[in-house]
Design goal:
Elements (H helix, E strand, L loop, with lengths): L16 E3 L15 H12 L4 E8 L19 H13 L3 E7 L7 H4 L4 E2 L9 E2 L2 H21 L3 E6 L4 H6 L14 H4 L1 H13 L5 E6 L8 H14 L4 E5 L19 H4 L7 E5 L5 H9 L4 E4 L1 H5 L3 H7 L12 H6 L4 H7 L9 H6 L1
Parallel strand pairs: 1-2, 1-10, 2-3, 3-6, 4-5, 6-7, 7-8, 8-9, 9-10
Length: about 350
């Protein structure tokens, strides 16, 4: 966990700890980086994370998924991003922007129009994109990556998970297109592969590129996702695959594939020079080691990184680290660099934040 990890492109991580891309609601309404979000992220870089990744940053204005989301779709975002990249890198952490578009999950009230996705969607009122608009979506992902590069970031991660727009294209249920972006698994994954190819072509040779995938749920089929994972790793255009497992130790939801861990379907693939990381209920030092012992190259910490900005340093001092017990006092979260907006958001996570009156009584 404490040894460096090299990649085919871009700088090495000084250890195997990456900050997961975490929704935090702290940016300004126009997507410009706030001082609160700057503080939250750079504190993790200071805390020893080998990679510090932003929250999901939307590549189109209409792709916003939540209030206070970081934007990467316009030149107005460049100054804040430049300041952020410089500070993260100064603390020896690899600086990464996660590229995102919420698709049919964009709230209409937030974006001021009907959301868009691979196909018309009655449940959300989303409109299916035209072929030309899908091509523009690809271009906007690529342009956002180039903007991150210009800001000084070491790389980007493409968000293809959690039923956001790229994941929606991968889903046979949500993607009912009849053009080259729909139908077969190859066609449904075309948009992801075009984004990868476009970023590789436009950005410098040593620019790091990752891809996040969900292996199941969201109307996805595990065999299709493992096939896509193998394809992109074999092509070698990405530097790492970030598997969002929800629980690193769980078995697949599909009974046909149970009897072994979900993780194992990916660790057994031929990854070539591509590194493999995962997220999902990785909390203790034992959890961290279990992921590497089971074949992962590195881990993405979410809740554990919220609780402890210096988790890597704490692990170095005590490999049997156990995070602070939940629910935690709001004061603890503020001390860990969360703004009032972020603390408010964390209250929606069941059992994570102590009730104020109980806190006062104690």
């Amino acid at each position: 966990m404490l040894t460096p990890l090299t990649f085919a492109h871009g700088p090495a991580m000084k250890n195997r700890f990456a900050l997961a891309p975490l929704t935090n609601l702290q940016s300004h309404p126009d997507g410009v980086l706030s001082d609160e979000e700057f503080h939250w992220l750079t504190l993790r870089a200071k805390g020893g994370f080998g990679m510090t990744m932003t929250c999901a940053a939307h590549v189109q204005r209409q792709g916003q998924g939540f209030p206070g989301q970081l934007g990467v779709f316009g030149e107005e975002h460049l100054a804040g991003m430049t300041r952020l990249a410089k500070t993260i890198k100064a603390d020896g952490s690899v600086a990464v922007v996660q590229l995102h578009h919420a698709g049919i999950r964009s709230p209409k009230d937030l974006i001021g129009q009907a959301p868009v996705g691979p196909s018309d969607d009655e449940a959300t009122g989303a409109r299916g994109l035209s072929t030309a608009e899908v091509e523009q979506l690809v271009e906007d992902f690529v342009a956002a990556a180039h903007r991150a590069e210009r800001a000084g970031f070491d790389g980007v991660e493409i968000h293809g998970a959690h039923s956001y727009i790229l994941c929606q294209f991968l889903s046979e249920g949500l993607n009912r297109r009849t053009d080259r972006y729909g139908g077969t698994p190859e066609n449904r994954s075309r948009v992801v592969k075009e984004v990868i190819a476009g970023i590789r072509e436009r950005c410098r040779a040593d620019f790091s590129l990752g891809l996040r995938l969900s292996p199941e749920r969201f109307e996805l089929k595990l065999p299709e996702i493992t096939a896509l994972a193998q394809e992109v790793m074999s092509e070698g255009r990405i530097d790492y695959l970030d598997m969002s497992l929800w629980d690193y130790a769980k078995e697949p939801a599909d009974e046909a594939f149970q009897g072994r861990t979900l993780m194992s379907y990916f660790t057994e693939l031929d990854r070539g020079k591509v590194r493999l990381g995962c997220a999902g209920k990785i909390m203790s030092g034992a959890d961290v080691r279990a992921c590497l012992e089971r074949g992962m190259d590195f881990v993405f910490l979410g809740r554990a990184a919220i609780l402890h900005h210096d988790y890597p340093k704490l692990y170095a001092a005590d490999p049997d680290l156990e995070p602070i017990a939940r629910p935690v006092p709001e004061a603890h979260l503020r001390a860990e660099g969360l703004s009032e907006r972020f603390v408010g958001y964390m209250r929606s996570w069941k059992g994570f934040v102590a009730e104020p009156e109980k806190e006062a009584a104690e």
